[in-house]
Design a protein that fits this description.
about 425 residues; alpha+beta; 16 strands; S74_ICA; Tail fiber domain-containing protein
Amino acid sequence: MELSLILSDDTETYQAILGQFIESSAAETHADRILAQQAAETATNSANSALDSAGQAAQSAAASADSATQASASAAAASTSEQHASQYATAAQAASTDAAGSASSAASSATSATLSATSAANSATAASVSEQNAAATLANALKKANNLSDVADAATALANLGGAPKANPTFTGNVGVPTRAVGDSTDNAASTKFVATSFLPLAGGVPMTGNLPINAPDTAHFLGVVWQLAGKNRWSLQSNGNIDFTLSKYNADGSWNYDPVVVGQNGAVQLSVRSGAWCQVLSDNTYSVLSLVTANGFCMQMRASQNVGTEWVNSANSAINMTLTDGGDLIVRSDVKAFSDRRVKSNIKRIKGAMAKVRELVGVTFTRRRSKDKTRHMGFIAQDVEPIVPEVVHTDEKGMKSIAYANMTALLAEAMKDLDKRVAALEARK
């Protein structure tokens, strides 16, 4: 029922229409409710039916699964039975084969037994023949042993008896037994005399010949080693009556030539090689000397002592040419020269401002540290000179500085020239 818009001031009419509308709406609502309840009941019934159907389906599926499991078990049992049957058949066949083999072995054993019996019979026959032969041999031997009238010697008798000599009196090959003379036992056989006299004695005894004789000490010889050639001494290493140990060189005739090496009993060592020019190194408790000698006899000798240092000496006149003292001073007998040829120089420039540089130099006197010599010396301090004239100052790898005093001569010469010019100019003004 549709509700129409009422435009009227009639209250009763309005209320009547409204009441009808409410009654109509309530009736429709009740009818709809009944229909809804019926639909719900129908849906519930359908759901219950579906559940029942699902349960029945599950039961059917479970039954089918059980049937499948039973079928699989039956198939496995059938397969196992088939395998057992096959194994039984194989075992039966193997038993049949073994039976056949046993029968064959039995036949072979019977054949072997027959052959063994035959061999035993043959062995018995051979033993009988051997016994007969042994009896005949013994009879013949007894006859020969009892009748020796036709035997010339024991060897013939032994041959008649079928024997052989214990040793052959004739030896083949070379077997030598040395006598008392010294020699080589090349055949691996030696007498006691040979062995007693053919060893190397520790002292005395028989001398051993060869290229390296070793002489034992006695009243006429000293311990040493001598090298010989054709019986002539060539070299010897031995001590002498002064207990000096020497290495000696000999001439072709075996006579002594000289001693290249001598070690004295006082500790001095001398080394020399003589063939025209020679060199000698000698050391004892006072001096250590190195001598260089030429064929004309000139020798430069460097001699070091505890108090002097090192000296270079001319042995021709014993003059000391140069001395390097233990304090570091170098003293020479003649001039000290340095190369100053133009051919060895480049970038040559004249010294400028020489007088100004000389004015800055400070000359001093001093004594040397760590030196026993307390003599006062004259010179410059390198650290003071270096900023003014760096060309004459040298610094070594340890930082120690030194001055080339000879090179400062050029600076002084140029300064003197500058001074000479000034003096000449002053004199010209007078």
